[in-house]
Amino acid sequence: MALEAPAPSHNVAVFFHGFFKVAVIVWYWVCTPFIDSFVIGFVVCVVLLAMDFWVTKNITGRLLVGLRWWNEANDTGSAWRFETLPEGTRQVLPREKRLFWLALMASTGHWVVACIIAVFGLSKWLLVAIMALLFNASNLYGYFKCSREAQADLKGYLNTTSNTLMQGAIKQQLTNAVSRV
């Protein structure tokens, strides 16, 4: 009886997956209001966003969840490509997978909120927030399309939620009908 070796831990990848996301958010909210030059604040934000996008797309996606995506452009147009490592070759730690998805969704959610705040005039950094949202949302979309498991989880959540809402609506209608009698 051979024991299967445990999946290797990717602590450095986990660190950098979170580091660039946190660094750009901290820079956006803490540093940019205190910098007189819009150009410096903008450039630092864009460089951090680009580093986060690249690390997430090219390194942490492969190591932490066994997924990758890319976009091919040619004379006839462009096409998104999605790849999932086969189950036998993929060794994914549940903790790392949860951290990967949590960081990806939390940062995208943060940039949605930052865009809303910037639109209402509470921040002059709307362009940075939009760029950040596009970078983070494209990574989230790409990895979501790669992951059959994430798609199944979302379908299950939507089915459960819709069933719960439907049951509540039916129960409310029955209660209203009974109260009228």
TrEMBL record:
Pfam family, one: DUF846
Keywords: Golgi apparatus, Membrane, Transmembrane, Transmembrane helix
Entry GO CC: Golgi membrane
Cell compartment(s), UniProt: Golgi apparatus membrane; Membrane
Membrane topology of this protein: Multi-pass membrane protein
Spans through the membrane: 12-29, 35-55, 99-119, 125-144
Superkingdom, taxonomy of origin: Eukaryota
A Gene Ontology BP annotation from the UniProt entry: vesicle-mediated transport
InterPro entries per the UniProt record, alphabetical: TVP23-like (IPR008564)
Family, similarity comment: Belongs to the TVP23 family.
Protein name: Golgi apparatus membrane protein TVP23
Originating organism: Edaphochlamys debaryana
Source species taxonomy: Eukaryota, Viridiplantae, Chlorophyta, core chlorophytes, Chlorophyceae
